[in-house]
Amino acid sequence: MQVTDWRQRLAQAGLTDDFIFNKTFLDARLAKELISRVLPDIQVGKLKIVETQHELTATRDSKGLRFDIYAEDDSKNRFDIEMQVLNRHNLAQRIRFYQSLMAMDSYERGKDYREGGNAFVIFFCCFDPGGNGNQWYRVEREIYSSSSRSRLGDGEVSLCFDVTNSSHTVSQPLQNFLDLLAGRNVDESDDFIVQLRKRVAFVKQNRKWRREYMLRTVYEMDIEHDRRQAVKKGHEQGLLEGHEQGATDERLNLVCDLIRSGQSADEVIKFLTTIRRMPTAEAEKYYQQAVERLKKHGEGK
């Protein structure tokens, strides 16, 4: 890989880039403000970032999990904040696993169950996580009976947001953050937005983190190179074709959802080029294909 490749990629990266997202919210002040915007009814105490990319395992031989941002406050609340660009169609199962590991982490031997504190999993997704066209989804356990329905109140809450949805069904402060993630016009008078832009710039200039980004990018490129070499030899051809068709369908579905949400052609193409890192020509192609698909189903103009 050319040296300029990772530098160009870093220069173009925004908060939807996993690495930039992690390093930005190492700043506990910014993480606390974001949590407060997502959970305005929760009094977030003094916040401590446990570790970005923090790994937890339930047992020595069980599957481990790396959190993007894992934090806790002095009221024993725990928060996991995740940035998810690709839809891997396993979000519900991932939420269950994340919550189970956070629960294991919150209890010490001999501790009363009621002392475990609350656990919040927050996902910012570049797709519709619930598939129902909503901007946000809240997940909590409920108790059903033949005559009633109520919340369990076990302290576990998960929230998922569709960054691509601009329907403004959240508070304006949170909408500003979602607009920033999506590359839409943002209220630049919002001090949180100003501080985030400064922090992102700082992350990109930090020499230690630049080197870390370079090494990670080289590693990813090596994996991709090895995969392509295997394809050329015919070892993965059938798998590759299925994977590429699935990826194409996922992108088209995403663009259709963006158009349905009322976003213009320029906004859709900007999203695809800045967040999904598509070349402009490819983004324009997907937009045209999505328009044709919607017209075919009677949804287009």
Features:
301 residues; alpha/beta; 2 domains; 6-stranded mixed beta sheet; two-stranded antiparallel sheet; 8 strands; globular
Describe what this molecule looks like in 3D.
It comes from Limosilactobacillus oris DSM 4864. This protein is of the alpha/beta class and 301 residues long. Helices cover 49% and strands 17% of the residues. The chain contains ten helices and eight strands. The longest helix has 26 residues, at 207-232. The model is unreliable at 58-62 (pLDDT under 50).
Strand and helix order: HHHEEEHEEEEEHHHHHH
What fraction of the residues are assigned to beta strands by DSSP? 15-25%
Q: Give the count of helical stretches.
A: 10
Instruction: Report how far apart the termini are.
Output: 44 Å
Question: What strand line-up does the widest sheet have?
Answer: 1-2-3-4-8-5
Unreliable segments of 5+ consecutive residues? 58-62
Number of domains: 2
Per DSSP E runs of 2 or more residues, the count of β-strands stands at 8
The residue-averaged pLDDT reads 83
Give helix % range.
40-55%
What characterizes the major β-sheet?
6 strands, mixed
CA-atom Rg in angstroms: 21 Å
Q: What characteristic shape results from the CA principal axes?
A: globular
Structural class: alpha/beta
InterPro entries: RpnA
Pfam family, one: PDDEXK_2
Protein name: Rpn family recombination-promoting nuclease/putative transposase
Organism: Limosilactobacillus oris DSM 4864
